[in-house]
C-alpha cells in the first residue's frame, strides 16, 4: 500500500482501516469482513 503514496506526505493516522477514521462515530451496522480487510489513507503533495 505504501507505493500508492510515493512522493506524497502521508497524513495521520497513516494507512488504517476506514472504520477507524471515526472510531467514536455512530456504528449503525456490525463490521463486515470487507471492513476488516480494507485500508485507506490520506496524503498531500509536498510543498
From TrEMBL:
EC number: 2.1.1.-
InterPro entries in the cross-refs: SAM-dependent_MTases_sf, SAM_dep_MeTrfase_SAV2177_type
Pfam families in UniProt: Methyltransf_19
GO molecular function annotation: methyltransferase activity
Main enzyme class: transferase
Keywords: Methyltransferase, Transferase
Protein name: SAM-dependent methyltransferase
Annotated source species: Amycolatopsis mongoliensis
Top-level taxonomy: Bacteria, Bacillati, Actinomycetota, Actinomycetes, Pseudonocardiales
Amino acid at each position: 500500500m505504501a507505493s500508492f503514496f510515493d512522493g506524497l506526505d502521508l497524513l495521520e493516522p497513516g494507512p488504517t482501516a476506514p472504520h477507524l477514521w471515526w472510531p467514536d462515530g455512530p456504528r449503525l451496522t456490525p463490521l463486515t469482513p470487507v471492513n476488516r480487510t480494507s485500508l485507506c489513507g490520506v496524503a498531500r503533495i509536498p510543498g
